[in-house]
Design goal:
Aspartate Aminotransferase, domain 2, 8-stranded mixed β-sheet, 5-stranded mixed β-sheet, 13 helices
Length: 404
């Protein structure tokens, strides 16, 4: 290069799954050249199911019309904002003003960086969960904020250690990221947990941004932090159609909260893009109108898949909780796991979770995510996605069993 990269990216690496998927693609090619099946990828949570048929039909109808292919409103079409508001009212018992309290996003992942740009200055502090979604950390680094990791404790159901959190130096903290049902742990939210988070935020004058894309997956009671009285004073919430409606590649999300915060979000977002393709917005309206039967059928399939992943983890000797939600199974690596996989020596500079993951990948042709990528508290754990059909999961189960 004839110039130096920006200093803000100095400590930011390419996203783990971006590099790992390239490694898996190369390995799959090598396996197929030998007459073997490609790698079964149980890494990222990208739903493999089909979106609602009515959404696909609406997309096609709208895309065939004249006059719908130009720039769209930065705030999204009114029908989409109204549908998001109705969705929150129907399933979360939350009232949102569609005219000023909802901002559509190109997927909620975009919202993490936009919110960071909107509210953080260089040197401001950000509370980031450990273990947690890596993008919270990378977005903080890119805006040159200071990350302050807070522990999620397995003994407390992967919720914050409140005594430890309250005893931390919180001066300069502006944002706290929360995520329930949790990724990677699958920990469910409760109303009491959300009340406690809101109380903490108010007392310490911290803006909480709750990332809530998994609330319908294997979860009979979807909850929103915005249901807590007074939460709009100190909370924003992001949500998405990616997981609950099998629309990850469509990139349709939203952020909701008090109009003052949404105005700041729009200030940044309107500089970065020119609105979502209108046919996508019309299709999203259809998806948001789905009734409870859609989620019952969706979750029935995920329960079948979860049963197989549990069997795989049992075979590996990994310990896991059964009462979890979301698209993953999160398991603790045990001495029995290492013995089962024939791992006799663990180099000090290599995470145990990586040794386990690589042993299964290269020995069995199955990829399971190592927990170290989610933070210090994720080390010693592995995570398997439910985003593969039962036959593929059963093939993975047989491959691991035969290798062992």
């Amino acid at each position: 290069m004839i110039i130096q990269p920006a200093l803000r990216t100095e400590n930011v690496k390419e996203y783990y799954f971006s590099t790992k998927n390239k490694e898996i693609a190369k390995l799959s090619q090598e396996r197929e050249a030998k007459g073997l099946r490609p790698v079964i990828n149980l890494g990222i949570g990208s739903p493999d199911g089909t979106p609602p048929r009515s959404s696909i039909d609406a997309l096609c109808r709208e895309a065939a019309k004249d006059g719908v292919h130009g720039y769209q409103p930065y705030t999204g079409i009114p029908q989409l904002r109204a549908s998001f508001a109705q969705w929150y009212s129907r399933y979360y018992n939350v009232t949102l003003d569609p005219s000023c309290e909802i901002q559509p996003l190109t997927g909620s992942k975009e919202g993490i960086l936009i919110a960071s740009l909107a509210f953080l200055n260089k040197g401001d502090k950000v509370l980031v969960p450990d273990p947690g979604y890596p993008t919270y950390s990378s977005a903080s680094l890119m805006v040159e904020a200071e990350m302050v990791k807070y522990d999620l404790v397995p003994g407390k159901g992967w919720t914050p250690d409140w005594d430890a959190l309250e005893s931390m130096d919180l001066s300069g903290v502006k944002i706290m990221w929360t995520n329930y049902p949790g990724m990677p742990t699958g920990a469910k939210a409760t109303r009491e947990l959300y009340r406690r988070i809101v109380d903490f935020a108010k007392r310490h004058k911290i803006l909480v941004i709750n990332d809530n894309p998994y609330s319908f997956i294997l979860n009979d009671e979807p909850l929103s932090i915005l249901e807590v009285p007074g939460s709009k004073e100190c909370c924003l919430e992001m949500n998405s159609l990616s997981k609950a409606h099998n629309m990850a590649g469509w990139r349709i999300g939203m952020i909701a909260g008090d109009s003052m915060y949404i105005k700041e979000i729009l200030k940044v977002k309107s500089q970065l893009d020119s609105g979502m393709f209108r046919p996508l917005q019309v299709a999203a309206v259809e998806a948001l109108g789905q009734g409870k039967e859609w989620f019952r059928e969706l979750n029935a399939e995920y329960r079948r898949r979860k049963d197989v992943v549990w069997r795989i983890f049992d075979m590996l000797g990994a310990e896991y909780e059964r009462n979890t939600a979301g698209l993953f199974v999160w398991g603790r690596v045990t001495p029995h796991t290492l013995e089962t996989l024939g791992i006799k020596e663990c180099p000090k500079d290599v995470p145990v979770s990586q040794l386990v993951s690589d042993r299964i990948l290269y020995g069995c042709g199955v990829f399971i995510t190592p927990g170290f990528i989610f933070g210090r508290n994720g080390e010693g754990y592995i995570r398997a996605s439910l985003c593969a059909p039962v036959p593929s999961l059963e093939t993975a189960e047989k491959a691991i069993k035969s290798s062992l």
